[in-house]
Known about the structure:
The chain is mainly α.
Amino acid sequence: MAKFLAWFYGGAMTTNPGPPRSVATAQRLNDAIKRLRARLRSESGHHAIGLTTTQLAVLGSVVREGPVTAARLASLEHVSPQSIAQSLAVLKAAGLIHGEPDARDGRRKLMSPDPSATELIGTLLAGRASFLSRAIDHVVAPDELGELEKAVELLERLAAADLGDGGI
């Protein structure tokens, strides 16, 4: 039976095999991404703005995609239409976005950024890029830059992965 279990699980049985390597790597990656995101928010001045991370993400999408529908924003941000509606209400009240009827379909509203929103997002992104550039220059050796570029490519592929299972 032990030989069968070893074969079934793909290797020799141990008393405490621990989690599969991909699970452990996934947890380390998740932890590293959370720490890096928190650091980027801190370095960019995000906390002083008074908007939540979700609201800023939605605002960034409006700046990048606008004019854009709420349904498209919900899809881009992987959140419910109700969540998008809440964020849009806050952003409208702050004067950062405005909605106009879609010329092709008057039932839909298109969200567009106020120029101040574009400037705000640009400032935040510049702060993040500045921190990352300085950190790379300080921490990554010149002969490691190729490895970093490969890691970025892998992260982009992970972010774009379509597993066909609807996610978690």
